[in-house]
Amino acid sequence: MANFSTNEFKPGLKVMLDGEPCSILENEYVKPGKGQAFNRVKLRNLKSGRVWERTFKSGDSLEGADVMDVELEYSYTDGEFFHFMDPISFEQHAASQDAVGDTQKWLKEQEKYEVTLYNGAPISVTAPNFIELEITETDPGLKGDTAQGGSKPATLTTGAVVRVPLFISQGEVIKVDTRSGEYVSRASKS
Amino acid sequence: MADWRPSAERTALEARAALLSQLRAFFQSRRVLEVETPLLCTSGVTDSAIEPLIVPTSPTLRYLQTSPEYAMKRLLAAGSGDIFQICKAFRAGEYGRKHNPEYTILEWYRLSFDHHAMIREVAELLGELLPHRGWQIWSWAALFQHILEVDGHVATLAELNAVASDRLGNIPDGLDRDALLDLLFTHCVEPALASWGIVFVVDYPASQAALARLLHDRSPLVGARFECYVDGVELANGYWECIDPGELERRFQQDNQRREVAGLEVRPIDPLFLAAMTSGVPPCSGVALGVDRLLALRLGAGSLADVLSFDWERC
Questions:
Q1: Secondary structure (DSSP) of chain B
Q2: Which residue in B165, B182, B189 has the most chain A C-beta atoms within 10 A of its own C-beta, making it the best mutation to test that interface?
Q3: Which of A7, A28, A36 comes nearest B49 by C-beta?
């Protein structure tokens, strides 16, 4: 891979730091008028998701990371791995539990996910911002509660639990914001 | 393609025009002569932390000035008296929220002022332009002690490395003493000054005196240099000027040794500047102030791009 110098550090650039693939989030140039220039850089470790802050001497460089974001369709899990497929090439990718992380609770068959490949293997999986899922279990709704607000927990087909308005019933399909884990609305069609 | 539209709002353009008028009025009322000097010269500076932009001109290369210091001192040597200049200066690779490789500098010189008289004049200027802030003077060492609890003059390289690692986590390897002091100052001291209003820092270590005279009656030896910080932003740098040509030549040679060690190109020492210093410059103080940063501070702008008609990425 090519090396990138601090002045090429831009948000989104993928580099290797301490042997881990990272994505640059921020790069701040810091220099006294008479003195050494530094770059204060925020990077996200693409494996752990942790944000690192690191200071470099301006002009230092890091090796680029062989990292690619691809859109893949979720197929199934064999209990150990989560299998995704490229909808164009039909190429299969197996993601570990670590790579899937919290996204596991939003995994729905035939849905498309952004998968980050490092040296060809998945290291992280990001759910679409909104996803439609069916409610498998929730307390019965109360008639006449549509205007009052108030909420109750509902379990979805994926196992995720979200808070829904009281008028929503078991078996309904709802739209959820995966970033906040919050109920958005009833699905457009159920 | 970059955006063709300006990076500054029209209000910022108006504020810049007003600021330039106010600066000129301040110096005119004090009978300081406005001058203009060339931007392209046959020599640049030897400073190991400043890289010039070099322009191919016929028959030789020329350096875009990194500040108007040398030419203005040649005017002083020729008997100009008190002078000021508002001009562009250029520094390769300096780009960020507080940097633009092409920037506007205000530089002025006052005969017979020492650095404390010059600090008062900077404070008077800022009193007009950035009201309600108040100002204080700190010695470099006291500030280091207060914020980092370390004696910056005597701490060993290992101790400075330990303080920096403790505060900042992983730090770059192989920093020399001055680079470590710069790291600690920019990463720990400057952010702490963000709520202090106007702070003048004085008595820099001799190794960071730049072109200020050394105060030989002081122990440890310090340079008569000051920096002005406003809300934690480095705004101005001034010297009670070193006017000894032999001493200046030694410092330029030291700069070049540092450049060699760092693997940087050695720069020619400006013979015209040294000749002027040898002919004699009257005792004086000088200061350079970042006009774009001053405007950003006045407007509360988060980035220099907000106060430049077109920032580096748009031109």
A1: ----S-SS-HHHHHHHHHHHHHHHHHHHHTTPEE----SEES-----TT----EEE-SSSEEEEPS-SHHHHHHHHHTT--SEEEEEEEE-TT--BTTB-SEEEEEEEEEET--HHHHHHHHHHHHHHHS-S--EEEEEHHHHHHHHH-S-TTT--HHHHHHHHHHHHSS--TT--HHHHHHHHIIIIIHHHGGGS-EEEEEEEEGGG-TTBPEETTSSS-EEEEEEEEETTEEEEEEEEB---HHHHHHHHHHHHHHHHHTTPPPPPP-HHHHHHHHH---SEEEEEEEHHHHHHHHHT-SSGGGGSSS-GGG-
A2: B182
A3: A36
